[in-house]
Amino acid sequence: MTIAPDSARQGPSHAYRAMRDFVQSVEDTLPGKFEITKEGLVHDMMSPVRQHELTALHLRKRLEKVMPEEIVAHTGEPDVEDEPETILRHPDVMVIAWADMEGDGSFDPRTLIAAIEIVSRSNPENDWVSKLRDYPLIGIPVYAIFDPRTGTGAVFTDIHPTPDGPRYATRKDFVYGEDVTIADWTISTEGLPLYS
User: Fold this and answer.
1) pLDDT tens for residues 18-45?
2) Closest to 24 measured CA to CA, from 8, 41, 2
3) Angle at CA 3, nearest 5°, toward 2 and 5?
4) Which end of the chain has fewer CB atoms within 10 angstroms, the N or the C?
């Protein structure tokens, strides 16, 4: 569900700060996950199901087996934030250099090597539509989507300018069971769980 505040008329900076303050004030008290997009707040009310979390764990472990030690597949906090673009997101898996995780506050999205999302059963458009628009806009060079609803996915790369803003130029689709390349690393998708 996306909610755009009435304060949006007062300018993007004011509206964004209001949404950011709201997200911080409710993040430990309301169920689900809040993110900020160009359209406003996105609230995924469902807690991730086991297949979603298990997929994130498989991907993290498989990537970390093939990546150099100074690169991690991070599945925790904090968010990635681009305040000038008024976007606050929380990828399921963030491929990032260990050194870029140091410091305080949200991660700079331009330090991510890749963002990986496992499609939510309750809100698939968030991953397939709005994040596909937001991630190139905030400079994330590789975006991989794994969809446990269908056992398929896609990897998006090569950000380029378009009349509607930056977009990914290259899309490589895959089905579970095939190897998939995310940035410089290839992993198997064999045995990833599906939603029942």
Assistant:
1) 776 677 766 666 666 676 676 766 666 5
2) 41
3) 155
4) C
| Interior angle at CA 40, CA 24 and CA 56, nearest 5 | 65
Rounded CA gap, 54 and 69, in Å?
22
Of 109, 124, 100, 118, give the one whose Cα is nearest residue 166. Answer: 109
Domains parsed from the chain with CATH numbers: 48-188 (3.90.1570.10)
Token couple for 1: 């569900």
The C-alpha atoms of residue 34 and residue 43 are separated, in whole angstroms, by 5
Give the single-character DSSP code of 129.
Answer: I
Q: Which of 97, 2, 106 lies closest to 44 in space, CA to CA?
A: 2
pLDDT of residue 196: 87
DSSP bridge pairs for 80:
89, 107
Tens of pLDDT, residues 50-92: 899 999 999 999 999 999 999 999 998 888 989 888 888 899 9
CB 62 within 8 A of CB 187: yes
